[in-house]
Amino acid sequence: MIPHAHIQRRSLLKLMTGTIVASGLGHAGLAFGADMVAASAGDKVMTLEFDQRLFGRIVSRLNGQAVALSDFAPSETVTLNVSTDPKVPATKTIDSFSFTGKSQAAVRDVHGKGVKHTISGASAEGVEKTLNITFYDRYPGFALISATYRNRTEAPLEIAGWRLGGHTLKPTGTGFWSWSGSSHADRRDWVQPVGLEFNQPNFMGMNASDYGSGTPVVDVWRPDAGIAVGHIELTPKLISLPLLATSAGAAIALDSADAQILMPGDSFTTLDGFVTVHRRDYYATLDTYRKVMADRGLAAPKPTEGCYEAIWCAWGYDRNFTIAEIEGTLAKVKDMGLKWAVIDDGWQTSEGDWYIDAKKFPRSDDDMRALVKSIRAAGLKPKLWIAPLAVDPGTDLLRDHTDMLLLDANGAVQNVTWWNAFYLCPAYGPTRDYTQKLVHKIIADWGYEGLKLDGQHMNGVAPCHNPAHNHKHPNESVEQTQDFWKMVFDTAIAANPNAVVEFCPCGTSYAFHNLPYTNQVPASDPLTSWQVRLKGKSLKALMGADAAYAGDHVELSDKGRDFASSVGIGAVISTKFTWPHEGRGKDANFRLTAERETEWRKWIDIYNARMLPKGQYRGELYDTGFDKPEAHAVEKDGKLYYAFYADTWRGPVELRGLGKGTYRVHDYVNDKALGTVTASTNRIEVAFQQSLLIEAIPAGAKV
């Protein structure tokens, strides 16, 4: 077989360079001749049109006029393995299906009322295709789509893969921006500009030993419109969502390399996917995707009050912390206005055994409970770090329970590189039972009020071939990872209904299917302040506008002090300062100096006074790619809070989303009045470096 990535690139290039059926194009790029379109399905926002070969294109009505965002090209295809020699791979993609009919019917289901369109065709190779496309009143411009292929030949067909929703957004000379939900070891930006020859396969399985899974969506946009595709299955799937750009435009698709034999007369149906159009950036796509998945039963839990409270983490003291250092810092943490004290990596002897380190806690459980009491006595809430699903070499667990290991097809272990550890299988009962007991002990026995679940390996796992697990198929480990995290979350909440369960899959693109089982998500080791902000926008879309997203330790931001990137977007603030001692490790420079204390205290006071994470993040108002300066908005208590970011900016900024009446504009960081605005006169002239955080207050309301 040809390697999957090669099939993807070849298929996408064919998609982008497919024969254009339409001719006589008008200024909007639409065909004048109605005979060019054999069938269509759509609503007031988007229409999917198909020609006589069932090549598809997307027509947008976002601005009230019909505009073809893509040209006719093979949008749904099936690929056969036609090799007669297993050593010489050969495939054939069937992309042309002569149109045979169309019907439609009203539907009502978990997504509300809608119209289901059925479009059929037949290929010269004897394969019948049936497209099912459903538009719902509740989700304009968001089409659910699947394809069924039936073998009408008299011989078995070896299916090598299929493609769904393959479309190429045409260029306008302004360039493209993109959002991709895949995870990568280089911890790249989820939001990226798309230049010529941009090529990212976005495989939703493992893209490195311990980096994998993600959110099964890819989105690309230009200033006037964007398109996106993804799947809406209730479990993770090992598909790809490639994004490839050439001079013809930016192509996206949902690709599967799931091989199977299709016997004569039999059929198979693709995953349930979606195709959508939108204005501005990716936020609208992810927000609608979240709502559709909530209809299907997957939704993030409502954050508890503690999820929003400001955080201090002892990680500044590194793994070699002492109890005296932590307890000696607690009074300062409380005095600064922070609410949580997190005990990070280093309390345990190893990942896997999770024995209490006797050097730090000589009386074992008694000393651990005593530390929790000290934290509470200081007026703070205790949270404990763990890294489930990892087991270190040399541990008792690995010696006594090799049956828990996740193994590949060759019987080899899967490495967790950060801790030089191995994966445990999340779909294996004993792994779950062992972890459940640990979580219960931490919350119910030791008394911690929160968990910090940590490690890039938590986001997703590889298929498991361990014979001891009796999996129905190896992908059970992939598809049941979310069930493991549900168990962890449910166990913590059962022990303490107000528990905060923080999920930190270091540097990965969060796996959407895990998000229903966490009530706090951090920026997860951001490389830049830009990542703090783009991850915040993404997770507010995927979990809800008032999600408890945390900007992670401020020391990880640009120059180690950019509170503005968290406060401005409505993120929970966090720090790992040390006091009065210095921290440890190669980056140990976290001591709370007098200068830092003044600055930290100011930002913590601002955060506690406004608590913007509890507000509604208004991600639909600004485009993170094309709007300059970068802008974000949060609505809370009748006010609108705006945050603008740029290295240097001098000029107008636009305050979008204002209601009726006049608003007073106030720079709440520097306590400075900036004039008044209305919805129709919503621009003000400003000058700033790095950030400008302002609030628009209805006339008559208090500052």
Instruction: State the end-to-end distance.
Output: 66 Å
Computed Rg: 27 Å
Percent helix = 10-25%
Number of strands: 40
Number of helices: 11
Gross geometry = globular
Helix/strand/pairing class, anyone? alpha+beta
Descriptive overview:
There is one protein chain. Strand 28 and strand 29 form a beta hairpin. This protein has 703 residues and is α+β, with helices and mostly antiparallel strands. It is built from 11 helices and 40 strands.
Write the layout of secondary structure elements.
Layout: H1 4-16, E1 39-42, E2 46-50, E3 56-60, E4 67-68, E5 77-81, E6 91-94, E7 98-109, E8 112-122, E9 127-136, E10 142-151, E11 157-169, E12 176-182, E13 191-194, E14 199-200, E15 206-208, E16 211-212, E17 214-221, E18 226-231, E19 243-246, E20 249-256, E21 260-262, E22 267-269, E23 273-278, H2 283-295, E24 311-313, H3 323-335, E25 340-343, H4 365-377, E26 381-386, E27 390-391, H5 396-400, E28 415-416, E29 421-423, H6 429-445, E30 450-454, H7 476-479, H8 481-495, E31 500-504, E32 521-522, H9 529-543, E33 549-553, H10 564-567, E34 572-575, H11 594-610, E35 616-617, E36 630-636, E37 639-654, E38 663-667, E39 672-677, E40 683-698
Parallel strand pairs: 24-25, 24-34, 25-26, 26-30, 30-31, 32-33, 33-34
Antiparallel strand pairs: 1-2, 2-3, 3-4, 5-6, 5-11, 7-8, 8-9, 9-10, 10-22, 10-23, 11-20, 11-21, 12-13, 12-17, 14-19, 15-16, 17-18, 18-23, 19-20, 27-29, 28-29, 35-36, 36-37, 37-40, 38-39, 38-40
Helix pairs in contact: 2-9, 6-8
